[in-house]
Write a structure and sequence with these properties.
With about 260 residues, this protein is mostly beta strands. It has one domain: Alpha-Beta Horseshoe (Leucine-rich repeat, LRR (right-handed beta-alpha superhelix)), CATH 3.80.10.10. It has three helices and 17 strands. The strands form three sheets. Strands 1, 4, 5, 6, 7, 8, 9, 10, 11, 13 and 15 form an eleven-stranded mixed β-sheet that branches. A four-stranded parallel β-sheet has the order 12-14-16-17. The chain is globular, with a radius of gyration of 18 Å.
């Protein structure tokens, strides 16, 4: 049955280590892949790509930081994620509860990915983590994410709709750079998040609708970065209802249905 056959798989096992290296990062070599991580983190993660075009990341701990470049053959510091070379084999990215952080460049250039599920256990979305996912259309961000780092979703050219949970406190430089198709942002934070420079540059802020809590509209209209949106509206019941409908569609899709096919 489609969805049960494994195409590729691997593990990431990191023990907690003390490190005095620059920026508190430790550089290690494991199974032909370099990665970076904070000195005090540990991980026991398994990744699997199935024949239904789904990659599932499960386990406990952080997905470590990786690195990639437009011209890797010219750069000695090219150390992509272990699934980087199989990125054409998946459309759906499911990160399961237990993963606490998504490292830099984790899913960089996953050009055929169309959907991402980020669970409630994740608190941080790293730099360039979903950069150049040109066909990404939907993102579910768990309600524990606090920081969306620089260029996290830059050049997601087909992303039309995003919900930002109230837990998010910081959105860093150019996090949604060149997300040209964004036409609606629903932001549940009552206090406008602190934005880095040019978070939403390259998109049409005269057409994109920003929906926020009713009592916070004036705060957003006077907040740096957010005030650039010309169409700020209150979140209404019908907006919440449409979100529920959207989630139900995802649940009934093959993205999540896979779990019931095992």
């Amino acid at each position: 049955m489609s969805g049960k056959n494994i195409l590729y798989e691997g593990e990431i096992k990191l023990e907690k280590k003390h490190c005095t290296s620059e920026y508190g990062k430790i550089y290690e070599y494991n199974k032909n892949t370099y990665y970076r991580r904070k000195w005090d983190t540990e991980s026991d993660i398994k990744w699997t790509i199935y024949d239904n075009k789904t990659i599932i990341i499960k386990g406990n701990g952080v997905i470590p930081d990786y690195q990639s470049f437009d011209n890797p053959e010219e750069n000695a510091w090219f150390y992509p994620s272990p699934w980087y070379y199989y990125r054409d084999c998946y459309n759906n990215i499911i990160i399961e509860n237990g993963i606490t952080s998504i490292g830099d460049y984790s899913f960089d250039k996953s050009k055929f990915a169309t959907s991402v599920i980020i669970p409630n256990s994740v608190t941080n979305i790293g730099n360039h983590s979903f950069r150049d996912c040109h066909n990404l259309q939907s993102i579910i961000i768990g309600n524990s994410v606090e920081t969306i780092e620089s260029y996290a979703f830059c050049k997601c050219l087909n992303l039309t709709y995003i919900i930002i949970p109230e837990s998010v406190k910081y959105i860093e430089y150019s996090a949604f750079y060149l997300c040209k198709s964004l036409n609606e942002i629903i932001n549940y934070a009552t206090e406008p998040q602190k934005l880095g420079e040019k978070v939403f540059r390259g998109m049409d802020k005269t057409k994109c609708v920003l929906k926020v809590p009713y009592k916070s509209i004036e705060k957003y209209k006077n907040s740096e970065g957010w005030k650039e949106f010309e169409n700020i509206k209150p979140i209404k019941f019908n907006c919440v209802k449409s979100f529920i409908t959207w989630v139900k569609k995802l649940i009934t899709s093959k993205l999540v249905l896979w779990k019931y096919q095992k």
